Amino acid sequence: QVQLVESGGGLVQPGGSLRLACVGSGFTFRNYIMSWYRQAPGKERELVASISSAPVSPNYADSVKGRFTVSRDNAENTVYLQMNSLKPDDTAMYYCHARALLTYWGRGTQVTVSS
């Protein structure tokens, strides 16, 4: 049974930081490109960051470059998203995504940036 389980979301003030984690199981994690997407109310889901495995190569949406860092630990089947200098516009449900021949989605973790 394939699972992607996100954690680490919450309420944070503008300028603050959060670290999201996503643990995968039921598939060969190291073979998959792992990504974080987000969806705010009334908006389409958008790609935030992705990271391949061999070689390790991160990519970011322009809106988060310089503030967010994506990383992965294949030994722990985990992908992380370190989010710094958070803004109210970063408020959204954040989803973990795995892609190879098949694709999988997590259920999401809510991030709210508000004072």
Portion of residues in beta strands equals: over 45%
What Rg, in angstroms, do the CA atoms define? Answer: 13 Å
Outline type? globular
N/C terminus separation: 40 Å
Are there runs of 5+ residues with pLDDT below 50, and where?
Answer: none
- Please identify the structural class as seen in this structure: mainly beta
What is the residue-averaged pLDDT? 96
Largest sheet properties: 7 strands, mixed
- Please provide the ordered H/E string of secondary-structure elements: EEEEEEEEEEE
Helix content: under 10%
Structure commentary:
The protein is mainly beta and 115 residues long. It is 0% helix and 52% strand. It contains no helices and eleven strands. Strands 2, 4, 5, 6, 9, 10 and 11 form a seven-stranded mixed β-sheet that branches. The chain has a four-stranded antiparallel β-sheet with strand order 1-3-8-7, with no helix packed on it. A hairpin with a 6-residue loop joins strand 4 (33-39) and strand 5 (46-51). The protein is globular and about 40 Å long. It starts with a strand and ends with a strand.
Kindly summarize this structure in a few lines:
With 115 residues, the chain is an all-beta fold.
Features:
mainly beta, 11 strands, 52% strand
Layout of strands and helices, then pairs:
Elements: E1 3-7, E2 10-12, E3 18-25, E4 33-39, E5 46-51, E6 58-60, E7 68-73, E8 78-83, E9 92-99, E10 103-105, E11 109-113
Parallel strand pairs: 2-11
Antiparallel strand pairs: 1-3, 3-8, 4-5, 4-9, 5-6, 7-8, 9-10, 9-11
